[in-house]
Amino acid sequence: MFEPITNKIPPLREYLQHIFEEKSAMNVNGQKVDSVLLDMLRASLFYPTRVDIVQRSNFCKEIAVVIATRFLQELRDESKVTHHYMESMNGKYSAAVITEDERKAGMGIEANNISESVHAMSTRNMQVFGTIRGDSSAAGGQQCSNGD
Fold first, then answer.
1. Which among 92, 85, 83, 96 has a CA at the least distance from the CA of 120?
2. pTM of the model
3. Are strands 32-33 and 25-26 parallel, antiparallel or unpaired?
4. d(CA 8, CA 10)
5. Which of 20, 60, 94, 141 could make an SS bond with 87 (beta carbons 3.0 to 4.6 A apart)?
6. Could you tell me the end-to-end alpha-carbon distance of the chain, in angstroms, rounded to an integer?
7. 148 vs 13: CA distance, rounded Å
8. Which helix (H) or strand (E) holds 40?
9. Cα separation of 76 and 39, whole Å?
10. Where are the beta strands (DSSP E) in the chain?
11. How far apart are CA 1 and CA 145, in angstroms?
């Protein structure tokens, strides 16, 4: 997966070799996991060969286009407030329109209602952690709103 990059950056190749081929991992019971098992797991996750998984991959790509299109339709709907924040709609609150002073003035201000606050926490978690699942990123905001 990283071969084009690792051919150009030997230290990265050495690091990946150490992490994925030489270093052992511990499972939840504190037992060492064989690196061959980890390689098999990685291969099945990133390079699926089962016919049913490969066939679903194309379906998932098609359905992703449909979902993204629908999201954009909803966000751009002029009867909803979200279109004011869309750069593609030249929204009055979008990053393309507001001044740098306005942008800075809005930083650090907490959301004024619970639904905005939960959404903001989800967005922050996605930005900070990147690969976190959507439902997991929402949990932090929900936890704060519930006082857990």
1. 85
2. 0.38
3. antiparallel
4. 6
5. 94
6. 40
7. 43
8. helix 35-46
9. 44
10. 25-26, 32-33
11. 40
**What type of residue is 23?**
K
Q: Helix, strand, or coil here: 99?
A: coil
- Measured CA distances, 123 to 57, 66, 114, 134 (Å): 27, 22, 14, 9
**CA 86/CA 84 separation, integer angstroms:** 6
| Rounded CA separation 19/11 (Å) | 12
Amino acid sitting at position 16? L
* CB-based contacts of 103, cutoff 8 Å, min separation 6: 95
Length of the chain (residues): 148
